[in-house]
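One thing: mind reviewing this one?
=====
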Amino acid sequence: MHIVITGGAGFIGHHAVWRALERGWTVSVLDNFSTGKLENLVLPSDRIPAGLTIYECDIAEGPLPDIKDIDYLLHLAAPVSVEESISNPEKYYKGISLASRRIFTWAKERSCTNIVAASTAAIYGDSEDVPFSETTQVDPMSPYAENKLEMESILKDYHSKTLNCTALRFFNVFGEGQPDDVGYVSAIPIFKKQYEAYSPITVTGDGLQTRDFVYVEDVVDVCYRVMESPVNSMKLSDMGIFNIGSGEETQILDIAEAFGGEIVHVDPREEQKRALADISLIRTYTNWKPTMNVLEWIKEQKNA
């Protein structure tokens, strides 16, 4: 099998690359390295592993590589900062909507049979309909979320009997290799960095806002299940859209307290008050279930 992974040098992307290589697949990574790191993709000897080809390119503009005969496209590349998208919406239009259309067209021209694309739980906005199901009314609160929703709409245009397309709405992904210095930085790597530096942990507002944290290896697992599972073989007439979360709601304050030490509260900001995924649909189609609880993971990291 030959899989193309956009954003393959990034946080989720590099986990997906190594999983594909473990399966013996041929892997092509497309990344502009704006936030991804080459070190995520090399062996301890600093060599590129067999079966992996890396193309440094910008999928939003400029030439794309002339790769032949693609089986799968895992589309993960996108700018991911809600705050930045508000101040620079054009970047997010180009980096999500425009880039997605370009890469979907490119993949279709190369006989790709399956596209899995990363969407986001941010499209639900501050809905009070918790837990969020795939039919919950969407209310994107930023250009980032608006363009991810537009990406889903674009992807639907490519779904057919010969090209199966699926959008996965990721909730808050955490795990090993999550950056604390570039791009969007979530609470967990910030708190982890502060804890390891013996600095106070800074919690936004009262910390009672909740998120659904899902482990990166579980996210990668479900991406491959979707490619190879009945979601694909059933050839759904409508494009599949699935929530990818843990199905557990965790307060940000609980995350901070799990690390321990001094906690300092900083000014609140406009953000979702609650987020929780209803994952019954993806479990029905793929028999997938999350394996790692975020608080247990933090405990393991502290004891490592």
